[in-house]
Design brief:
It is built from seven helices and no strands. It starts with 13 loop residues before the first helix and ends with a helix. Helix 1 packs across helix 2, helix 1 packs parallel to helix 3 and helix 3 crosses helix 5. The protein has a domain of about 90 residues. The chain is flat. It is mainly alpha-helical. About 60% of the residues lie in helices and about 0% in strands.
Length: about 140
């Protein structure tokens, strides 16, 4: 019988190898690059998924597992990128993670104190400005 370490661990395509390596690093799994995985990573590449994207989604799912919100199998490759539907879910999850990264939030301890003192528990967002207003300000500054 052939062991996992004797099976090819990388792809001849460096971009696929990078995605697989990012997955292995994020999960701390030692997973051989099997043909189904290579095909799935190839499909992920078509969607412009990067190693950083893989790390973000895997780490997010691992937090969900730790909190009891997800099952351990959610980070298996078949559940992460195994088919078109899983890739679509990956992209939606990535979009949600990126949106949360843009949203400013207070630390949990500060939120408790703010709520206890009847103050807003989210940072105030500046008022939206028109692009033309910003461009005019940049033009004045450049003069």
């Amino acid at each position: 019988m052939v062991s996992a370490t004797e099976i090819q661990m990388t792809s001849f395509n460096p971009q696929i190898a990078e995605l697989h390596q990012a997955y292995c690093e994020a999960t701390a799994y030692e997973v051989a690059m099997l043909p189904p995985f290579e095909r799935a990573w190839f499909e992920a590449l078509k969607l412009n998924i990067t190693g950083d994207d893989v790390r973000l989604v895997v780490k997010s799912r691992m937090r969900g597992i730790a909190l009891g919100e997800r099952r351990g199998a959610s980070i298996y490759l078949r559940n992460l990128i195994g088919c078109e539907e899983m890739l679509a879910e990956f992209m939606m999850e990535l979009a949600a993670i990126r949106a949360m990264q843009r949203k400013r939030v207070f630390e949990p301890g500060k939120v408790e104190v703010l709520r206890a003192t009847s103050r807003p528990d989210e940072p105030e967002s500046p008022d939206a400005k028109m692009v033309s207003e910003i461009m005019n300000g940049m033009r004045r500054a450049a003069q």
